[in-house]
Amino acid sequence: xxxxxxxxxxxxxxxxxxxxxxRSDEEKFVQxxxxxxxxxxxxxxxxxHCPNWDIVQKGVNEAKQNQRGVWAVAPAxxxxxxxxxxxxxxxxxxxx
Length: 96
Known about the structure:
By secondary structure, the protein is α+β, with helices and mostly antiparallel strands. It is built from three helices and three strands.
């Protein structure tokens, strides 16, 4: 089930995603599952429009505490931060 939270500047829908679990009537909150496993960073720009942002933050805290996925590597480079690197620009990095 999608819960549309906002629309980004390119016109794409920003949504919370819940999927049914195979053995129960419960649903899994996909954003929580992704950040708790360390597979994704939360996109804070839309946090004010995300009804379950507190659950997303809980997943981030769990992943950081247990050094899962992107939080297992130090320092992790967030997706938006690697765009200058792809152009050869390292001026945003500490010490440069």
